[in-house]
Amino acid sequence: MLRLDEAGFLLEHEYLPIETGHGLTSDNMYHVAASTYMPNCTAEMIDWWFGFIHNTEQYKLWHPRDHIFSDWEGPRENNSQYVGGHHLVHEYIGGKLAKLKISFKDPGEYFGANWRGGFEASGYGTAVCGRVGAWNDRDGTVVYTGHLIHLIKNEPGGCRMRSRFWLGDIEGVPAPQGDKVPEFMRVGLMKHATEEMAILASKLPGLYHKHRRGLVSGKGL
């Protein structure tokens, strides 16, 4: 299984032996992979979506059954700017309600300082990267427990999203605890990621052209 510090291999290999699956890495993180082809979507649309999404109504469009609540904290602009912001969500994963804080990071933290050059050379348009944590919605505290990367490659007629998660990297704990990730999360996250991105693909082009057009014309949302 691909280690977090090997994320750059994704740029070197268009398809790795495991594009959809899950398992323990050699450094004891739990790795979950999902791959979704998104017809009529582009990397630009994906970046726009993460800068656009905010409230629960919008979040439910993404997965009407599993997505329950959404809010945002920190920087966010409806022009693809979301790095440095935090998505606060309640969602079902593997049948269990998870309350999560997703803190978006610059792709350079995972792909190195020259990530833009690497992306261009490999045909990738963007990567949505972040630290994921268990969020206490009563007092606002969070314990970060994992990482996510949604790597987007533009392809004929659409784009392909290679979603990768590394679980068990717990803030304040010296050694990864991936072997303690429960079974429902291992399989459930793979299933959830595949479903939500397929659902998004069916709606994103229309949402993008509707709302982006209003933004560009100065009419807003």
TrEMBL record:
The keyword ATP-binding does not apply. Its cofactor is Zn(2+). Keywords: Hydrolase, Metal-binding, Zinc. It comes from the Eukaryota. This is DAPG hydrolase PhiG domain-containing protein. GO terms for molecular function: hydrolase activity; metal ion binding. It comes from Vermiconidia calcicola. The keyword Zinc applies. Residues 4-208 form the DAPG hydrolase PhiG domain. InterPro entries: DAPG_hydrolase (IPR041526).
